[in-house]
Design a protein that fits this description.
CATH class of the largest domain: Alpha Beta
Oligomer: single chain
Structural class: alpha+beta
Number of strands: 34
Distance between the termini: 61 Å
Strand content: 15-25%
CATH architecture of the largest domain: Alpha-Beta Complex
Radius of gyration: 34 Å
CATH topology of the largest domain: Isoleucyl-tRNA Synthetase, domain 2
Helix content: 25-40%
Largest sheet: 7 strands, mixed
Number of helices: 26
Length: about 850
RNA sequence: GCGGGCGUGAUGGAAUGGUAGACAUAUCAGACUUAAAAUCUGAAGGGCGUAUGCCCGUGUGGGUUCGAGUCCCACCGCCCGCACCA
């Protein structure tokens, strides 16, 4: 009997697939296409179990589609620009380019043994000049189409990475990568006009039926549409209006003061004139220092002394305050405060002794507001005591609509729609990114580079011994001729946010070597991505940017109209977790231990470790298992099988040594089963051929359903069960052989190497990878005889065995004659009998 | 605060409104072995009982239904996302 040697067969079949070129995507044949894509990795240098899970899921889909007669596009690339390469250069010397390409080579060599059905001929890295040159071309087209612009803006400055960050890249006041507290600076930056597409990006979410509802909702909240009233408060001194935006215009009679942002033009003017204001505004800009401080930040205000007139009563004057909680880039940067119905306004007014006026009460309670603002749901009816349009009992929603109509008719305000989504600032003061292809000329201003000069390559001779951008201090790279007038000029030294790189790579995969960003014929054939798979952490940033880029690329003629939503279906997979093993050092500080150093809760020297519940694998907690060592111990098939088997794919899966071993043992069992069946006399007859084949068809049905609906764990459970059935079967050689070949086919998306070897051993034709996927025979899915449970009043009391097509009346008769039913009836007639054919019988007594 | 999701054995988890706990882990017992490992066979939600069996059981409480883990309402707990957004 031969032994299952994963190392041997995996290398053998990977070579065979390569040689046959079966994973090379090809659009010539007359078959439907299928584009499956997993989010491409950052080349950190090591693959981790998360990658294994992500790519295995995509591979299962890709291989299944290949076996069901599709032209499959399943590419792989590298999201290769970004800070870590520069950090490495600063920390250990060397060049970001060498570091990155070295990592790519390492990771590729770790990934290849997984046996993924990837078309490696389409591989690229975003730091390839061939790729980023096309990105520059795309940028220039977008510039011409008015989708990119430059403006002076208050931006988030990361003092550690020494670069600006987009709003989406600031989490809790800290840089998403460095974790440093973000400062606010005013700089001239490049922006993508994503906010022009707010409404469309929001509307189109409804068409993304095969996206998780959670992701759509997160994007909806992020875009943040609101409807409200915009109007002016007239200044008493100058007669100039201060324009405010409010979503609760119905509370205007409860207005207590007008508030403006510290960045509002009026505040800026006062700042210049008045040192006291300057000091206050500076204090506001500093902001909090910790996350808690930001959450519980004290409301700060400064009374400017300016008075404005209430739009409904020229004799009613309100003070104008500068308040630290008002954001300049939302609405108009100015508000009116209604403390009775807004907790934040109430806190502010109580602090500074400003009036609090109730405008409505609950229908059954008219207690004036004291410390808690009265903010009922807008759908709840309330009783108005202070409204200008004569409202009495109405819901908030009705009151808002009535008020907007009233203001529009009276001509002092207009209903407007606002979005929270702001334009995407793409300038980064970094070296290792795609250079922005523009030139600054003293006479011509900002001039786009000529297309024939692309790519604008990054210079290789740079140093990282000083903080800041090496491009900025390079002696010659900046020098160039103005593309317009030819005069000596300076290049832009900012590079693009790396999210730009990942916003169109999926389109580039359709023609990775085209001389233009895309090849429209190829894009027309391969787009859209039929199934996209990645982490939920990209729910907003990457996916929203990509949706914007798909629109921009359509406008600039690089993608067909049908690709406006580039990802037909999205699946967000869970993480791979592991227990954490901890001891403490002499000072009581935690010390973590690698799983491979812990046996039965003890270290090699016998020290007991504390076991902390599973968390995402991370190097700092040392709860990591290296795919490379798993593959060398058990083989890729075992790793692939295990990451899919234990949990539903959208949930986290806990890596356990026992689970991985169990997966390995099971594959051995299947191997031995194949050996055993192979050794049978081909003419041997046995018992229960039909039963085995029936189970085989049920397995085909269930596994296919599982694979097609991301029920990988359920599919694998069915494969376990069918293997157990086959192992115990006494059927004849022909039936067993058919069963093991089918089992191999059903396993082939998950464990492709083992499946291939079994196929060959059992005399299967060609490669199993390209063999037609088995189809279940409907007639074989139902047993001739079915076991029906008999319920009495909904509780199971007995079972009967009847032919599958016996009619209801007959089933009822048999059910009623059972001992349990007779006993329960005790001579009386049943009140009701429900017979669900093939399912159940319920007798009500 | 706003929004969303989830609560099933010791554990991960199965169950188109139709026999709850498939499949797997851990556990226990048996076979093989001088012994162990490996492998194979079997047991196993809780309680009572020698047993045929009976009672209870999917976070808690109600409801709809012949029948609810699944649908509806309320509550409790946990997780995630967003958040001075006017």
């Amino acid at each position: 009997m031969s032994r299952y040697s994963a190392t041997e067969i995996e290398a053998k079949w990977q070579e065979a697939w390569d040689k046959a070129g079966i994973f090379t995507a090809n659009h010539k044949a007359d078959k439907p296409k299928y584009y499956v894509l997993e989010m491409f990795p950052y080349p950190s240098g090591r693959i981790h179990m998360g990658h294994v899970r992500n790519y295995t899921m995509g591979d299962v889909i890709a291989r299944h589609k290949l076996a069901t007669g599709h032209n499959v596009l399943h590419p792989m690339g590298w999201d290769a620009f970004g800070m870590p390469a520069e950090n490495a250069a600063m920390a250990i010397g060397g060049h970001p380019k060498d570091w990155t390409y070295g990592n790519i080579a390492d990771m590729r060599s770790q990934m290849k043994p997984l046996g993924l059905s990837i078309d490696w001929s389409r591989e690229f890295a975003t730091c390839d000049p061939e790729y980023y040159g096309q990105q520059q071309a795309l940028f220039l087209d977008m510039l011409q189409a008015g989708l990119v612009y430059r403006k002076n803006a208050v931006v988030n400055w990361d003092p550690v990475d020494m670069t600006v960050l987009a709003n989406e890249q600031v989490e809790g006041g800290r840089g998403w990568r460095s974790g440093a507290l973000v400062e606010r600076r005013e700089l001239t930056q490049w922006f993508f006009k994503i906010s022009d597409y707010s409404e469309e990006l929001l509307d189109a979410l409804n068409t993304l039926e095969n996206w998780p509802a959670k992701v759509r909702l997160m994007q909806e909240n992020w875009i943040g549409k609101s409807r409200g009233l915009q109007f002016g408060f007239e200044r008493v001194d100058s007669g100039e209006p201060i324009t405010v935006y409010t979503t609760r215009p119905d509370t205007l009679m409860g207005a207590s003061f007008v508030g403006i942002s510290p960045d509002h033009p009026i505040a800026k003017q006062l700042e210049a004139e008045n040192p006291e204001v300057a000091e206050f505004v500076a204090e506001c800009r500093k902001g909090g220092t910790t996350e808690e401080a930001i959450e519980t930040a004290e409301k700060l205000g400064y009374d400017t002394g300016i008075k404005v007139k209430h739009p409904l009563d020229p004799n009613w004057e309100l003070p104008v305050w500068i308040a630290n909680f008002i954001l300049m880039d939302y609405g108009t940067g100015a508000i009116f405060a209604c403390p009775a119905h807004d907790q934040r306004d109430l806190d502010f007014c109580r602090k500074y002794g400003l009036p609090v006026v109730d405008t409505f009460f609950a229908l059954d309670n008219d207690t004036p507001v004291d410390k808690t603002a009265f903010v009922p749901p807008k759908t709840e009816k309330v009783r108005w005591v202070n409204h200008f349009a004569g409202l009495t009992d109405a819901t908030g929603d009705d009151a808002i609509n009535t008020t907007v109509d009233f203001a529009e008719k009276a001509g002092w305000g207009e209903g407007v729609t606002k979005y929270r989504l702001r334009d995407w600032g793409l300038s980064r003061q970094r070296y290792w990114g795609c250079p922005i292809p523009v030139v600054h000329c003293e006479s011509c201003g900002v001039v786009p580079e000529k297309n024939e000069n692309l790519p604008i390559r990054l210079p290789d001779d740079v140093t990282f011994d000083k903080p800041g951008n090496p491009l900025d201090r390079h002696p010659t790279w900046r020098d160039c001729a103005c593309p317009s007038c030819g005069a000596p000029s300076k290049r832009e030294t900012d590079t693009m946010d790396t999210f730009v790189d990942s916003s169109w790579y999926f389109a580039r995969f359709t023609a990775p070597h085209a001389e233009t960003p895309t090849d429209l014929a190829e894009a027309e054939y391969w787009m859209n991505v039929d199934q996209y798979i990645g982490g939920i952490e990209h729910a907003i940033l990457h996916l929203l940017y990509s949706r914007f880029f798909a629109r921009a690329m359509q406008i600039t003629g690089h993608l067909p109209k049908k690709a406006i939503e580039p990802f037909d279906a999205l699946f967000t997979q869970g993480m791979v977790t592991h227990e954490i093993y901890q001891t403490r050092d002499a000072n009581g500080r935690p010390v973590y231990h690698l799983p491979e150093d812990v046996t039965d809760g003890k270290l090699a020297d016998g020290t007991e470790v504390e076991i902390i519940p599973s968390a995402k694998m991370s190097k700092s907690k040392k709860n990591v298992v290296d795919p490379v060592s798993i593959i060398s111990a058990f083989g890729a098939d075992t790793a692939r099988w295990f990451v899919l088997s234990d949990s539903p794919p959208e949930r986290d899966v806990e890596w356990t040594a026992s689970g991985a071993e169990a997966a390995f043992k099971h594959l051995n069992r299947v191997w031995n089963l194949c050996d055993k069946i192979g050794a049978m006399d081909p003419e041997a007859k046995g018992d229960g051929d039909q039963d085995l084949l029936r189970e085989m068809h049920k397995a085909i049905h269930d596994v296919t359903l599982g694979v097609e609906s991301f029920g990988f764990n359920a599919a694998i459970a069915k494969l376990y069960a069918f293997t157990n059935t086959l192992a115990k079967s006494k059927a004849g050689a022909a039936a067993q052989k058919q069963a093991i070949k089918t089992l191999a086919q059903l396993m082939s998306p998950m464990t492709p190497h083992l499946a291939e070897d079994i196929w060959a051993h059992q005399g299967g034709e060609g490669l199993i990878a390209t063999a037609a996927w088995p189809v279940a025979d409907e007639a074989m899915l139902v047993d001739d005889t079915v076991t029906l449970p008999i319920q009495i009043n909904g509780k199971r009391r007995a079972e009967i065995s009847v032919p599958k097509d016996m009619d209801k009346a007959e089933v009822e008769k048999i059910a009623l004659s059972t001992e349990a039913v007779q006993k329960a009836l005790d001579g009386a007639a049943p009140k009701k009998v429900i017979v669900v054919p093939g399912r159940i019988v319920n007798v009500v007594v």
